[in-house]
Amino acid sequence: MELRADLLRLVPDERRVTTSESVLDQHAQDLSYHRPRRPDAVVYAKTTEEVAALLRWASEQGVPVVPFGAGTSLEGHVIPARGGISLDLTRMDRIVELRPHDLLAVVQAGVLRSALNAAAGEHGLQFPVDPGADATLGGMAATNASGTTTVRYGGMRTNVLALEAVLADGRVVRAGSRAAKTSAGYDLRSLFVGSEGTLGVITELTLRLHGIPEAVVGVRAAFADLDAACAAAVALVGSGLSVARLELLDALTIAAVNAYKGMAYAEAPSLFLELAGSEAGVGGDVEAARELCEGEGCLAWAAERDPTARARLWEARHHVLFALVHGSPGKLHKSTDVCVPVSELPGAVRRARLLAEDSGLAASIIAHAGDGNYHVLLMLDPADPAELAAAERLNDALVEHALAVGGTCTGEHGIGQGKIGYLEREHGDLLPLMRDVKRAFDPQGILNPGKVVASEAALR
Ligand SMILES: Cc1cc2nc3c(=O)[nH]c(=O)nc-3n(C[C@H](O)[C@H](O)[C@H](O)COP(=O)(O)OP(=O)(O)OC[C@H]3O[C@@H](n4cnc5c(N)ncnc54)[C@H](O)[C@@H]3O)c2cc1C
User: Cα separation of 159 and 380, whole Å?
Assistant: First the structure.
């Protein structure tokens, strides 16, 4: 009660400061296999000033604060590992400004990407970063999210021009500008992007918008085996064609999608791709892409121009995780997330398929093939130590291989608490420097403690 009374002095609204059990439970977990832990209270901020007052108080009291967007991250990012306050940003949901001629939008951190796209769409513009889930733009910036369109438009770091953040001591800072580029000093904007709530709370973002292409064609291309599908993906990336999305789904994934969505896609390794540009250019590009895929052994090619049919295709892709969860009742999901140089993708995926079969786990493979980023999606019972150990062995082997070929342990999901050991493996020499950065921004260690640069041992 004392905690709630303190919080109500900072955010004087009974409905936005809560210790109700159901709300604590909603903020105790993400969508993955990580064990939940409740915060002591949940605060819904509405203004930067409220965030600043809360952080000033939390720093003085030594109370942990974990920013919370839509809670769709996958590595235990939002789990309050040390209790404290879950700071929910979803009520900061105002689109502050749209400047179509400058191709930018200013939004509060809790705006959902779908809401920004609806508003930008009225001006023939889009915000293309697409992690599948309808996440908040603050959460997407905090995880440096990317997704199906990254092959064309880049991820969050490319698309955040500027941001406002509140530091642990309550100071409000702004990094970046509205200009398309800058060389002014250290790039703290990029440092906040991907910092997973450990360096500050992002309250506002200035984002790049992009024109919606005149013509868009979605394609489903099926192949005899994964090798052929991967080889076609690598060829498409280097082709110079107007590829806007380039996704790989293995046969097991297609089977799960068919069962969940009532589709009848050929149950073979497939590329889902999108070509987008001018009406005159895209027609030729579709034919060139088809020839290229046939050269790599494409068995079936289905192109869709109709917006509804294209939406159905991408909905099927975006619902892969739900299809797998649906097909494995009682199990939870763990996703690997390595990213390799794109020429290494065929070998990496071939190896992953064999390792997945050896693991004895239900394992599907999907890839943002254009970026060399692939996921083995594992359905497991987190209470079964044998299944957990098998999943960890598999992930270890994939990370080891990715690092050996010049890749990374996480292409887009981030470190959270699940990949701390892998960060040590990938950047062990840089970790002391990263911890110095953390201390400079958050000397008391109140911001999302136990994540990213925490030592793994500290979590046990
Ligand atoms: C079905 C499915 C598919 C997915 N596919 C992809 C994909 O293709 N690519 C991809 O990148 N991700 C993917 N994800 C993961 C997820 O959608 C992203 O991590 C998302 O960017 C997180 O946004 P959020 O609003 O849910 O943030 P949350 O999960 O609420 O928070 C994520 C992290 O950011 C911090 N945070 C949140 N808001 C702020 C803020 N305002 N300031 C500072 N820190 C903050 C939190 O403390 C936490 O550490 C997928 C998830 C699902 C469920």
Answer: 35
In a domain, 426, yes or no: no
CATH number at 350 reads 3.30.70.2740
| 446 in a structural domain | no
277, 332: one domain: no
The reply to whether 314 and 341 lie within a common domain is no
Task: Determine the residue type at 391.
Answer: A
Q: Is pTM, for the whole model, over 0.90?
A: yes
Pocket test for ligand 1, best of 29, 30, 46, 72 (most atoms within 8 A of CB): 72
The total number of structural domains in the chain stands at 4
The DSSP symbol for 342 reads G
What the block records as the tokens of 216 is 């868009």
Closest to 128 (Cα-Cα) out of 89, 156, 105, 101: 156
Given a cut of 60, whether residue 457 has pLDDT beyond it is no
Supply φ then ψ for residue 35, to 5 degrees: -70, 130
Q: How many CB atoms lie within 10 A of CB 145?
A: 28
- pLDDT digit string, tens, across residues 295-320: 999 999 999 999 999 999 999 999 99
Domain that holds residue 284: 215-321
- Ligand 1: atom nearest CA of 92 is 41
CATH number at residue 312: 3.30.70.2190
Q: Give the mean model confidence (pLDDT) for residues 144-164.
A: 97
Which amino acid would we find at residue 342?
V
Nearest to 94 by CA among 104, 106, 83: 106
